[in-house]
Amino acid sequence: MSNHVSDQMLDQERASVAQQRRSPLVGRARALVAAMAACASLVGCASATDVVATDKPGTYTVAASATGGRLAWARAHEHAVSEARDYCERRGMQSSVTTETVSGVQTMTAHASEVSFECHPTF
Description:
5-stranded antiparallel β-sheet, 2 helices, 123 residues, single chain
């Protein structure tokens, strides 16, 4: 009988040790999920207009906007530049940004970037 009781105590001790080992992992997983949710809420979204030809031959414009967080201007800039790059690459060329106009610098407002660019042959 004492053997049965000692087996139960050993099983409880093993379960306790296993729980202690899992607790830091569970806590870390919960912290990671919370951090990812917080980041996702700050990311916001970005959108761009279609590329439009300007009055100057070979020059185009595209505008992008982004919301959510302090770095929305960076996402708007990157989205506009990416659209320009993709537009030129689809034509077998590379983009060259000539001017950029930005607006909206306050937190939690829409930030925008309008890029004028040209497409040049790749070398």
